[in-house]
Amino acid sequence: NAGVTQTPKFQVLKTGQSMTLQCAQDMNHEYMSWYRQDPGMGLRLIHYSVGAGITDQGEVPNGYNVSRSTTEDFPLRLLSAAPSQTSVYFCASSPIQSQAYGYTFGSGTRLTVV
Amino acid sequence: GDSVTQMEGPVTLSEEAFLTINCTYTATGYPSLFWYVQYPGEGLQLLLKATKADDKGSNKGFEATYRKETTSFHLEKGSVQVSDSAVYFCALNRDDKIIFGKGTRLHILP
Prior knowledge:
heterodimer; A: mainly beta; four-stranded antiparallel beta sheet; 1 helix; B: six-stranded mixed beta sheet
């Protein structure tokens, strides 16, 4: 049982480049989300999805796009990377009733934009 | 809006010391409350949770009690080990979103 798998683990981008951070879960969880973790800021919600075909914005959505074509996958796209997007990105999932279960997190993607 | 405030770190203790990490929250209604732990280079792991007032969550020797009257969910452990060194996050759940505190880094000295 793989849980939540994030790829790549590390990435360096140049300003203006685009890329997609991948997230996949094999637990049939309806809910998936993306967070970024910055020093002294804790975790901040970027985008989330309550099921295939449904996405919504979190606290810090600007500069990021998401889509949810399947239950398993929830990729995060950076269309034009900026140094302010240097961060560690975590994907998380849960059954829709997350109050009872909490989240399962991936191991993260460390992104550096130069 | 809803928020979580936890004590700033780093917290440094000797092995076998008693641990308390304070957490208070602001929320309407009755959210579920969580503690997550993040070991170096890893993602967050759910440590314990409580879903209603006066519930006590416990796991791996850690405990936290949901106190509605003081809007608190303090994390405690009676005797810490070096392996407990990590970052601890307090969090609440509202409308299927989890709001995290900023985290408290814990160092345990042998």
